[in-house]
Structure formats: C-alpha cells, structure tokens
C-alpha cells in the first residue's frame, strides 16, 4: 500500500463515519409546542419535535379548541410589527432534495375573526402567499408543499409580512423531509424550487389526509 492511498483512507473513513451519524433525514417541527411535542411519529418514522432551537423569534400559544390534532393545537406567531421576516433555520445536506411542508390552522389564536395573510419564503426565494381564510371558514387547516434542492448546510423557511398583512403571521407545523435521489428525478432542479401544492385537511381530530 502506497503512502498516498494510506493517507487517503485515513482521511476518508472518519469523514464517512461522521456523515452517516449526523445525516439528518428531516425534521418535523410542532410549532409553538414549547418544551415537548404531543405529536406522534409519522409513517416515515420521524417524530414531531418542538420548534424551539430552530428559530429565535416569535411567541407561542395554545388554541382553546379541544378536539384538534396535536400538531394544530399549538402555534408560533410573530407579533413584532417592526420586523418583516421571521425565519426558521433547518440543518440539511447540501445538494440533497427536501420536501418542505408548512401547515397553518388559525383557530382565532389572537382573538380575531380572520386569519392573517402573509408570504412564505424558502431559501430566500418567495414561495407564495399564505391565505388560509377560506379553509378556516370551512373548519379546515391548510398546508403547502414544495420540493427544494438544498443550496447550503441549512435551509431557511421564513414567514414575511406583505402589504395585505393586517395581524400577526403564524405557523402550526413545519416539516422538512429528505427525499431519495431517485424521487422527482425527471424534474429539472436547475436552481431549485419545484412545485407548490396547496391542500387542506380537517382541523378536527382524525388523520390528516395526505
Ligand atoms: C411576545 O414575547 C415577547 C418576548 O418574550 C414579549 O415581550 C411580548 O410581550 C410578547 N407578545 C405578546 C403579544 O404576547
Ligand atoms: C435519474 O437521472 C439520472 C441522470 O439524469 C439517470 O442516470 C438515472 O437513471 C435516473 N434515475 C431514475 C431512477 O430515473
């Protein structure tokens, strides 16, 4: 064995070990859960955890409605009207694809009648407008999904005030799940950003409809 091969092994083996131990397959954040989440595990085996530690701003609260699925029962909201953007920072693997899902259930947390309208931004690019008004009137939560290619070792997901934002932006859950390379292979990820899907599910207890 030549010296250079030996050195190469010395260097690469520890790196591979470190990678396999710390590779995040994703995070399911139960926003506003405080000390711990009451949300369970999903089919993928990931567990909901509190969002503490992934964001440094915002206030948390619990809805009074009693029959909610656990992840909708608490939320984080952003009353600071002097700031425009409020961002989560999620550790990811640079170059890997992730499914990002945001879930919103207003629940009248601020004593108002109508949910706020605001923007969501992923890795610095505007993803879309969050307007849960119609779903809320119908007793439904709202969610949005997008597939992104991680450009760095952390992914930012932000809520931002826009000209139509009249009260505090909020979020009920944020999920960032690693996708196998073969998934969405046919799609050109040139920079990133794939598609946004908005779907709704019942706010009351029961399975979220995927
Ligand atoms: C939000 O939290 C901040 C800092 O803890 C606090 O000063 C502020 O009063 C809270 N705002 C509301 C609306 O509860
Ligand atoms: C994914 O794309 C690469 C390169 O375009 C191709 O070689 C590979 O066969 C594709 N994999 C699947 C599962 O489609």
From TrEMBL:
<dbReference type="Pfam" id="PF12819">
    <property type="entry name" value="Malectin_like"/>
</dbReference>
<dbReference type="InterPro" id="IPR024788">
    <property type="entry name" value="Malectin-like_Carb-bd_dom"/>
</dbReference>
<keyword id="KW-0812">Transmembrane</keyword>
<feature type="domain" description="Malectin-like">
    <location>
        <begin position="29"/>
        <end position="206"/>
    </location>
</feature>
<keyword id="KW-0732">Signal</keyword>
<protein>
    <submittedName>
        <fullName>Malectin-like carbohydrate-binding domain containing protein</fullName>
    </submittedName>
</protein>
<dbReference type="GO" id="GO:0016020">
    <property type="term" value="C:membrane"/>
</dbReference>
<feature type="signal peptide">
    <location>
        <begin position="1"/>
        <end position="22"/>
    </location>
</feature>
<keyword id="KW-1133">Transmembrane helix</keyword>
<keyword id="KW-0472">Membrane</keyword>
């Amino acid at each position: 064995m030549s010296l250079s091969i030996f050195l190469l092994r010395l260097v690469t083996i520890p790196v591979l070990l470190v990678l396999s131990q710390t590779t995040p397959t994703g995070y399911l954040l139960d926003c506003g859960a405080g000390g711990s989440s009451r949300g369970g595990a999903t089919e993928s085996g990931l567990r909901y955890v509190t969002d503490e530690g992934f964001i440094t701003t915002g206030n948390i609260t619990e809805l009074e409605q009693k029959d909610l699925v656990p992840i909708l029962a608490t939320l984080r909201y952003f009353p600071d009207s002097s700031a425009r953007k409020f961002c989560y920072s999620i550790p990811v693997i640079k170059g890997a694809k992730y499914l990002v899902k945001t879930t919103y259930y207003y629940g009248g947390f601020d004593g108002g009648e109508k949910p706020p309208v605001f923007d969501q931004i992923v890795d610095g690019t505007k993803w879309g407008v969050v307007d849960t008004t119609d779903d809320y009137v119908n007793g439904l939560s709202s969610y949005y999904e997008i597939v992104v290619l991680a450009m760095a070792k952390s992914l930012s997901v932000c809520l931002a005030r826009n000209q139509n934002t009249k009260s505090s932006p909020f979020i009920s859950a944020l999920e960032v799940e690693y996708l196998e390379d073969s998934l969405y292979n046919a799609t050109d990820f040139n920079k990133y950003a794939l598609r946004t899907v908005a779907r709704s599910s019942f706010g009351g207890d029961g399975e979220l409809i995927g």
